Amino acid sequence: MHWTLLVCxxxxxxxxxxxxxxxxxxxxxxxxxxxxxxxxxxxxxxLEAGAAGVVALGTTAEPASLNVRERQAVVDVVARVCRExxxxxxxxxxxxxxxxxxxxxxEVVAALSVVPPFLRPGxxxxxxxxxxxxxxxxxxxxxxxxxYRTGQHLSTAAIRRLAALPGVAGIxxxxxxxxxGTVELLADxxxxxxxxxxxxxxxxxxxxxxxxxxxxxxxxxGTAAFVQLAEAWRxxxxxxxxxxxxxxxxxxxxxxxxxxxxxxxAVLHAQGRIPTPxxxxxxxxxxxxxxxxxxxxxxxxxxxxxxxxGLA
Length: 312
Ligand SMILES: O=C(O)C1=N[C@H](C(=O)O)C[C@H](O)C1
Fold this sequence. Notes:
The chain is an alpha/beta fold. The protein has a single domain (3-235), classed as Aldolase class I (TIM Barrel, Alpha-Beta Barrel). It has 14 helices and 8 strands. The protein has an 8-stranded parallel β-barrel, surrounded by 6 helices. α5 (122-136) links the parallel β4 and β5 (141-145). α2 runs parallel beside α3 (68-85), α10 (223-235) runs antiparallel to α11 and α11 (238-255) packs antiparallel against α13 (288-298). The chain is globular, with a radius of gyration of 18 Å. It binds the ligand O=C(O)C1=N[C@H](C(=O)O)C[C@H](O)C1. The ligand O=C(O)C1=N[C@H](C(=O)O)C[C@H](O)C1 binds next to loops. Residues 23, 55, 58-60, 198, 200, 215-217, 260 line the site of ligand LZUJQKHR.
């Protein structure tokens, strides 16, 4: 991407990488095919409920279990919804060929690219990887840092070097805890760099520390409550934010009681929003008791009451 274009775009991009993004699940129908109509409806629902944007082909979408045609169909459907609603879309893409093939459409504001997993190339390797990826990408990158999955730790200094790379606009920060490195990063945010939380149960403290928003699979349910949480922390409504954050952490914990997105899909199915709760291998259906607990917590009317009464 051209450097001057990047500088002009950076403010606008950071503004758009703020708030709650929902990484959409991929619904399947009774034949096992991708239920594109249900996916389209889900995208409309979460945006209608106030989500800042959506992510296509995040971890939650089971992208490794989709074939090339299915992945393309998913991106096409979600992009159409985003175009209709003038909403930003982030697309999961990890390799040079995948980012280079991203559609040059206005609604695609960034690619979500995971730190290379398993190999553990070291911080220098990670930096070189993202420099190459950014050079090939028509859109800015959000680095997906999830060390408990990739096996690759990154120091705060390395994250700052990533943030300084042209074409890197943010990080999905999913380190599994809040530690001194988290505080160090958020206390002195790199310029033009968005920090989006990716550990759902930790989103409230991360927002309290100054994160720009979150990419939260939990926000498929209780979307408006997650949106209000982010707004409350941003506007200084700390009493409400703290209380709402505690309640949402309980919901997120229940939704992540089994490998994501098995429970979330079961809840969405119980709510009549997707045709089946099916997941593809290697994921298997969650335990019924985990689903029952999450369905109870996810009941829309419970959240509506809390939000209306301002009790949350
Ligand atoms: O798909 C995503 O992006 C997310 N994936 C995480 C995971 O599966 O662990 C969770 C987060 O909510 C968003």
